[in-house]
Design goal:
Elements (H helix, E strand, L loop, with lengths): L1 H24 L3 H10 L2 H29 L3 H13 L5 H8 L2 H13 L2 E3 L6 H12 L6 H15 L8 H9 L5 H14 L3 H10 L4 H25 L4 H27 L3 H14 L8 H11 L3 H11 L8 H13 L7 H7 L3 H16 L3 H5 L11 E3 L3 H17 L3 H12 L13 H22 L1 H29 L2 H9 L1
Antiparallel strand pairs: 1-2
Protein name: Suppression of tumorigenicity 7
Keywords: Membrane, Transmembrane, Transmembrane helix
Family: Belongs to the ST7 family.
């Protein structure tokens, strides 16, 4: 809104300046209309045809840009470049600077929900993702997804002092390598120098072809990572360099233990995986960035330990923490479990919903409002694919990642999918559009402008004389207020003053 207000101000300024020039230089209306009378029909044909061509080219470019990047080029330029030049103020920054702590937390909450996050249930590249490549010959992960993972690896597994240790220096280059074989070769080279925990991590993730092999490599990584963690823990207060090393070693240790728990879950040792996750959350309670609680919820649902699931939800389903599809839909599943086995839409319509049924329906409403893409995957209206390594909160990718592991848990609860289907179809099936892409205003405007100018060009080509008359009449009507203002100014101002102004 601020940007458009500035545009209107500029337009008004231009109009006032134009009027001032017209007044100062005393451009007579007779000269203007004489110019119009000299224009031939060919001029109007060429003018409308050229306008139609230009607007059509702009429309084609805008549509191509929208299909590729999901936004309007004109809108992006106006917001990103013109708005700062015009002095536009970022509403978010002003709100944050003037808000209370509670408002700031809610702003961070809303921002953090709609962003790209690491998928806490992502698969193993070598043992799981690559199987898809072996069978189909296609890549299961996008370049964008793998690029984000490379950035995560450099953030969590490297630090500024790596150049002091030869093995870590090699791994620092390995995480930046785009070629998988080059990364694996670099990891083997680092292990020839020293027992390097991050080298074992890379091999476990990308070279191991089975979960058992990955688990074996992660156990070797745990032995090396635990030693580095204990040494850096003793030196962390000796300077910023040692503090950075300890932070990196902590991230490495937590990552290894989390992936070991996921290996145990994949190999059927679910109770062992639950214990490992609980111990890890107790040992590092502040490292919530790995979202270990979502791994724990999935494992507890596999054990059908619903009371434990409720206890975890009570801790993490809080207003101050970022929501997720796992949190919202697991809460809905627990509420639905209490009533779904006896739920009947016909009976509910006759007698009304009971308190427990109302709670279940409200929980499903809350979940679907958070991510409306999930029901189609849980109800198997859309086919599942392998989950990505990164997800967009409240987006389709998060729905895929959730349903890939949790569909079996919903099927296990009798009637839960039926209750979800009835609630979703009756309330959200038609109205849920988030995050549907709507055509930007400038594409619609350009399409209308192109159609209008094309129609004018066609009419001008077919009826040049008649359209010339219409054009002259339109311009005369358009400049009639200007002529009226000029006449009034001439009559009001003294002749001597008007003479001096025209001379200036």
């Amino acid at each position: 809104h601020s940007c458009w207000s500035h545009v209107w101000r500029l337009g008004l300024l231009f109009l006032v300046s134009f009027l001032g020039i017209m007044l100062l230089y005393e451009v007579p209306s007779v000269v203007f209309f004489m110019f119009l009378n000299t224009l031939t029909p060919k001029f109007y044909v060429a003018l409308t045809g050229t306008s139609s061509l230009i607007s059509g080219l702009i429309l084609i470019f805008e549509w191509w840009y929208f299909r590729k990047y999901g936004t309007s080029f004109i809108e992006q330029v106006s917001v990103s470049h013109l708005r700062p030049l015009l002095g536009g103020v970022d509403n978010n920054s002003s709100n944050n600077s003037n808000s209370s702590n509670g408002d700031s937390d809610s702003n961070r909450q809303s921002v953090s929900e709609c962003k790209v996050w690491r998928n806490p249930l992502n698969l193993f590249r070598g043992a799981e993702y690559n199987r898809y490549t072996w069978v189909t010959g296609r890549e299961p992960l996008t370049y964008y997804d793998m690029n984000l993972s490379a950035q995560d690896h450099q953030t969590f597994f490297t630090c500024d002092s790596d150049h002091l240790r030869p093995a870590d220096a090699i791994m620092q280059k390995a995480w930046r390598e785009r070629n998988p074989q080059a990364r694996i070769s670099a990891a083997h080279e680092a292990l020839e120098i020293n027992e390097c925990a991050t080298a074992y991590i890379l091999l476990a993730e990308e070279e191991a072809t089975t979960i058992a092999e990955a688990e074996k490599l992660f156990k070797q990584a745990l032995k090396a990572g635990d030693g580095c963690y204990r040494r850096s823990q003793q030196l962390q207060h000796h300077g910023s360099q040692y503090e950075a090393q300890h932070r990196r070693d902590t991230n490495v240790l937590v990552y290894i233990k989390r992936r070991l728990a996921m290996c145990a879950r994949r190999l059927g040792r679910t109770r062992e995986a639950v214990k490992m996750m609980r111990d890890l959350m107790k040992e590092f309670p502040l490292l919530s960035m790995f979202n270990i609680h979502e791994n724990l919820l999935e494992a507890l649902l596999e054990l059908q330990a619903y009371a434990d699931v409720q206890a975890v939800l009570a801790k993490y389903d809080d207003i101050s923490l970022p929501k997720s599809a796992t949190i919202c839909y697991t809460a809905a599943l627990l509420k639905a479990r209490a009533v779904s086995d006896k739920f009947s839409p016909e009976a509910a319509s006759r007698r009304g919903l009971s308190t427990a049924e109302m709670n279940a329906v409200e929980a499903i409403h809350r979940a679907v409002e958070f991510n409306p893409h999930v029901p189609k995957y849980l109800l198997e209206m859309k086919s599942l694919i392998l989950p990505p390594e990164h997800i967009l909160k409240r987006g389709d990718s998060e729905a895929i990642a959730y349903a890939f592991f949790h569909l079996a848990h919903w099927k296990r609860v009798e009637g839960a999918l039926n209750l979800l289907h009835c609630t979703w179809e009756g309330t959200f099936h038609e109205v849920s559009v988030y995050p549907k892409k709507e055509l930007p205003f400038f594409i619609l405007f350009t399409a209308g402008l192109c159609s209008f100018t094309a129609m004018l060009a066609l009419l001008t080509h077919q009826f040049p004389e008649l359209m010339g008359v219409f054009a002259k009449a339109f311009l005369s009507t358009l400049f009639a207020p200007l002529n009226f203002v000029m006449e009034k100014v001439e009559s009001i101002l003294p002749s001597s003053l008007w003479h001096q102004l025209t001379r200036i």
